[in-house]
Amino acid sequence: MQAIGRRRLPWLSRGLVAGAGGTAAMAVWYHLERALRRGRYTGVTALADGTPVEGLWSHAGLDYDDSVVPGQIVANILNLPTPTPREAGAITLVLRWTYGSAFGILHVLLRNRMREPRATLIFGGALATMTSVAFPLLGGTPPPWRWPLDAQASSAGSHAAYILTASALDNLLR
């Protein structure tokens, strides 16, 4: 039953809002984690071949999503000249907010076909699989099980923040 005066968002808008909310939760996660750790983390500093990697907001990313690697992947896919770390960081942020917002649509589509918690479990599994496969194949990172333990924990926490927030927003806006 719909509340009086409350209009439902169309499915596409609901997915974009849910995804943007999840992306915001991920950004807040990184900010809080960085503040709480006060520089005391191993993070990610290199690709599998030893090439140095910079973080978005510090010398090392908390995990590869918090580094310039996503921007380098996009530049490579689009055949752009090799970006500077600053340019790769800017591309990473654009990617995060566009892809993160659009990915919320998947939860809407899943939720239209199944109940919770199954929709969120599949949604989270899809995101985790994409992250685990894309970084090593496209970005030259080690596989996730070879990341430093604190980077694995950061990745799990930031993605859980995204998944749970995006799912909750989609369900709330139905």
Using brief descriptors, characterize the structure shown.
single chain, 174 residues, mainly alpha, 5 helices, 0% strand
Word description of this protein:
- With 174 residues, this protein is mainly α.
- The protein has one domain.
- It has 5 helices and no strands.
- The longest helix is centred in the middle third of the chain and has 29 residues.
- It is globular and about 55 Å long.
- The N and C termini lie close together (10 Å).
Q: In a nutshell, what does this entry contain?
A:
With 174 residues, the protein is mostly helical. It has helices at 11-37, 69-77, 85-113, 118-139, 149-172.
Rg calc: 17 Å
Alpha-beta content class: mainly alpha
Question: How many domains in all?
Answer: 1
- SS element count, helices: 5
In whole angstroms, the N-to-C terminal distance is 10 Å
**Mean pLDDT over all positions:** 94
Topology pattern, helix = H, strand = E: HHHHH
Helical residues, percent: 55-70%
Structural shape: globular
How much strand? Answer: under 5%
The major sheet is characterized as:
none
Unreliable stretches: none
The oligomeric state is single chain
Based on DSSP secondary structure assignment, what is the total number of beta strands? 0
